[in-house]
Amino acid sequence: MLRFTTAGESHGQALLATLEGMPAGVPLVADDVNTQLARRQQGYGRGRRMKIETDQAEFLSGVRAGETIGSPIAMIVHNRDWKNWQEIMSAAPIEGDPALRKRAVTRPRPGHADLTGMLKYARDDARDILERASARETTARVAAGAVCRQLLRQFGVTIGSYVAELGGIVARPPAELPVDINAAVDASQLRTFDADAEAKMIELIDQAKRDGDTLGGVCEVIVTGLPVGLGSHVSWDRKLDGRLAAALMSIQAVKAVEIGMGIEAARRFGSQVHDPIDANEVGSEVVRSGRVRRRTNNAGGLEGGITTGEPLVLRVAMKPISTLMRPLDTIEVPTRERAASTVERSDVTAVPAMGVVAEAMSAFVVADAMVEKFGGDSLREMRRNYEGYLEYLASRDAK
Fold first, then answer.
1. Residue of 390, 342, 287, 359 whose CA lies nearest to 36
2. Are 280 and 292 in contact (CB under 8 A)?
3. Tens digits of residue pLDDT in 165-209
4. pTM above the 0.70 mark?
5. Contact 352/293 with Cβ under 8 angstroms?
6. CA dist., res. 244 & res. 367, Å (int)
7. Residue ranges of domains in the chain, CATH in brackets
8. SS3 (DSSP) at 4
9. What pLDDT, in 10s, does the model give residues 379-399?
């Protein structure tokens, strides 16, 4: 099975990602990762940090001659801003009074991990918390997800996302989504299909910036090309919907995840929710879905924790960023006196970038499910297992 870990602080020397379990023989070059890192840095409403950093990944292990070799894949993304933070973020002991440490944070921000982290880890300076809790950490997640995307690409699986809502403004997608969603929306400043809604969103972002405020929103992630049968109903921790929800909820500032119709399904009759099933012998997707089709996809491509062969449809909701340029009330932790919360360099909104991070986390979970079902030590072995499964689906008695 796949596993990845990340390390590094927002203003530290670098961010690290280590991915284990990737089969040998998957084509992989640095540009496959760097393309995704660049997408994460885009979007109207981002702060000055995106102009400082130009994220580039370097492979430290696990890749040779343009292919994975089966060992752990380690990647590093250097922080260009490190030169301005070396004294503040140095690992060396502090000489003299620790209270004199530069850029110490003792006024925790409401909505951030500052205060809970200080209490849990017995720290007097919230910088020991916020540097790791920062969404800058998602750079390493996107790097790991980019490798997973390369594996999925070998099986015809694609992942895209778009902004469906920002600051309460809804952006309507087309009746039929394009095959390559990202190619269609990445040129947009807010990664949305709806130009009219985007113009209103930009006005709202500009207003929020003038007011020293922030905005959240919703992205929709679509995964196509998956076969029926990934995940399982037999145990709670093998259900693919649960695994996807956990991964997406782990993204900084994400507060809700929906699959398919999501919460709306709770408001309707069952006859309006469940997807009727028909036999299907026509089209290139027939075998992958088990020679059946759903007339609708309200389930979002998952039933009983198992993929149906229909597209996965995931909606991810992000709250407004916690750092406000017009800060909310908090306390000065050492004295417990009222104070204005700390202001750190930040974005007005990062919803478009969150969609890219959500793609990465979805890629990891789905790739893990593929390895779980078709796994082997090499891509060739995995492909043989996959093709054997498709042969089984093709020959299965429809009765």
1. 359
2. yes
3. 999 999 999 999 999 999 999 999 999 999 999 999 999 999 999
4. yes
5. no
6. 11
7. 3-395 (3.60.150.10)
8. strand
9. 999 999 999 999 999 887 644
